[in-house]
Write a structure and sequence with these properties.
alpha+beta, three-stranded antiparallel β-sheet, 5 helices
Length: 168
Amino acid sequence: MSEPAASPGGHGSGSGGPDSASADSWGADSWGPGVLWPSAQIALGVGAVAVGSANGDPLGLILTGLLAVFVIPAGVMQLIRRPRIEVVDGQLAIRKLRGVVFVPPARVVEARALGVARWGVRQHLMRLEYVDDRGREVLEVFTRGDLGTDPREVTDRLVELGFGGSTL
């Protein structure tokens, strides 16, 4: 199955965001985090270690080293898992750290947009439930940071393409 070249709801479509150039290389139906934030995380970790080691204070070096231990791998993991979700040959490709999981539309149990209120701010999530190759149900929850766009738009597009059910 071939997807149309410019479909609504794809990563960067109509948003004009900083990653709209990379969206062309992914295709119309793929979503993932941008390059800017993970790169900034890696640069922050490297910069923190440089400042901590230049200062000469052992406690400062320990604290900046701990910061780097958490921030650099987080940035690298986000870069490795780009694009996070993609529609390839009629199947949903979910990129994880250990590789890509391909899920045909018949195995998707539910794709649903959720709204959660935390600290007075409404955060939208995408809940994707599918059956894996072993017959077990798998639940994936994606945030805006995972998808690079509003999870409600991604859910609507996946439902249009026949992946899952409700958009509550």
